[in-house]
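To assess whether the prediction recovers the assembly geometry, we first specified each molecular entity separately, as shown.
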Amino acid sequence: MSVSVGLGRVLEPAGVLPQAAWRLDASPEIGADEVRIAVERLNLDAASYRQLAEKHEGDGDAIRAEVLEIVGTRGKMHNPVTGSGGMLIGVVEEAGPESPLGLKAGDRVATLVSLTLTPLRITDGLSAWDGKSEQVPAAGTAILFGRSVAAVLPDDLAPELALAVFDVCGAPALTDRVVREYEGEKTVAVLGGAGKSGSLSLAAARLAGARTVAVVVNDEEAENIRRNGLADATAVADARDPVAVARAVETALGAPATVTVVCVDVPGCEHGAILATAAGGTVIFFSMATSFPAAALGAEGLAADVTMLIGNGYLPGHAEFAVDLLRRVPAVRRLFEARVAGH
Amino acid sequence: MSVSVGLGRVLEPAGVLPQAAWRLDASPEIGADEVRIAVERLNLDAASYRQLAEKHEGDGDAIRAEVLEIVGTRGKMHNPVTGSGGMLIGVVEEAGPESPLGLKAGDRVATLVSLTLTPLRITDGLSAWDGKSEQVPAAGTAILFGRSVAAVLPDDLAPELALAVFDVCGAPALTDRVVREYEGEKTVAVLGGAGKSGSLSLAAARLAGARTVAVVVNDEEAENIRRNGLADATAVADARDPVAVARAVETALGAPATVTVVCVDVPGCEHGAILATAAGGTVIFFSMATSFPAAALGAEGLAADVTMLIGNGYLPGHAEFAVDLLRRVPAVRRLFEARVAGH
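The predicted structure of the complete assembly is given in tokenized form:
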């Protein structure tokens, strides 16, 4: 462990990694391999924001107060209920002389490691945020460790757009890698194909040579996919209904999928994904609502010889890959622009 | 779904998979791709038996009556409180002409899919069972679907020994497959190497050409591994301490492991496994205590380019593979015999 993973920032319990910590030291003084960022905006994880919004019945002031309390208590925006965080955007204030990240003061960056392990201090009381959306204007400081990931914001995309893309950029990169491992004819089913990670995964799968089907929850989403030509086929099914999902995919593709990508952020999608996947195929779980035992025992109970991947949010070059997808596939860009504008 | 997953056996609610069903049709007439088994013994899941024993304060007659009631009502031994089942041993009575399982009348088999999805009819009132143990002598019939798993009991192993091996047979088979995907020199770290799935995984990794290290919780386990020559190196570390695990593995192997296998059934082992694995390597999680978000966010937060697999309990040929390991590696057989005798 020659490169720092932030152990020195952990206050309690001692000796654990920053993500597992209850509380981090978010003070702005940096170590030799750290980087300090002046925060401009937080992008809360969707599951985290939804939990807060539901708990407080959409009351923006109460949501804002709870976010401030979490950050104040934990030294990071780590939702204790969902276990999830998000990411942030800001400007590099100072890079330690031994930082390996290649950043310099003045670079406008997005952090691509989760807020669940990023030391964070808020100094403006989030006064510019109405609490009504997961995009949070903020002032304060955040710290990057030696072993961390941040991407300089591209000149040709609005920061909000780049952030929305970076937030899910692991999904298309891993989809690309897995699909390319299969030779010959191959198919990809994306559960939740109309969302951010889903639409990027669809685009990546097609560019990697697969025939694709988007499985979505209603006709409106299906029509949106069709109008934008985002997938070769669309199917409407409740992702929590294994039989319905498997039938929808088989009907659309003529057979189970080579690769199934789960981008639906609700519990109970494991068995449908497994049943919709061909023997020898792969299921990639990107939803944080995935249950490990449900997936493991489900595949065993269905005698399904499928490889099941925990969607890793990091691959080398994933941010550039996702931004490039947005540039190459206008339909994906339109979808992201609509989502960013809609908030 | 060209191969039956038992949808035709589901009585209520309609349209769900057998495991999710409240009630199955357990009638003994089989479909063309089904197999009927004459039941000899049920092995109730430990959690299920414990719940029943505690509820009835150890009253064997009352426990027996409730098991009969569950099976009579649900058409399967699916404990409604614990949600768990168990497995069974019996003799094949009849295999439908289209069954793909390769079984024939007279084969003595263990079912490797859970009792929670196996249609079951009891015909002897469990009269030979005193209700005092999870091992239940029984007469009746059970049904295997087209897509199901059963293993013929080997002649050269006691049934108890074979069952103990079958219980964890997915781990060595998947370890073998993953290790063989890596070319050249490779190393494997097994967290929890002294247990059933851990020792089989160590043996499989070595036979697949890897140098191995067993990470265990105390000196007694380390000495046991060393005495039996089960691994090329041993290290003592708390698997929940990421920094300790990574240091132990790096010290033993000289570098992070190509493949790390997690067989420790306690929460919090995800980050140590990730940190102990080389870039481009693979972590296989077999512990049901694995947290999906902890693994996904952990790898992202550590900027770790590792493939993370959900340990699938099923691979074609997994039972035969594990039994063969027991035959080839006397140290593993000794370990299993000691564990079975200890119960």
